# Entry
Amino acid sequence: MDAQTIEVLGRHRLTEELLEEDIEVALPVRDRGVDLVAYLEQGEEITRFCARPIQMKAAREAVFSIEKKYAKVPHLLLVFVWFVTEPAKTRFFALTYDEAVRVAEMMGYTDTASWQQGGKYAVTSVGSGLEDELKRHETTGNGERWRRILDTTGC
# Structure
């Protein structure tokens, strides 16, 4: 399965996850670092329209990556979609860019030449230490966490 197919599956799985939590989704016409826009527009607890741009990182396995170029997108959420080819196992993690950088710093990834010279770093085999750091950002099946992220940051 090629990378484009993985991305399409990831986008559909993420869209499904958000819609199941009563969060609306819009697809940008052009790809300039934003794959989806998630937004809240209705509901008793919603007092204003609130939208967040999402850069999605989808993979067949558990992966983590970060790139400095995403720092320029205001209020961007990096959403990691793991195990996209196995719907029963699919997991979602939503981090702001700053949160993702903090995780990378704690794991020592920002000390590498890849980050310092190339502005990016990727882990294709997530170990237990990194997974533990990411768990507090997991949003799988957690509409309350999704809504809190959307309503309290960037709006």
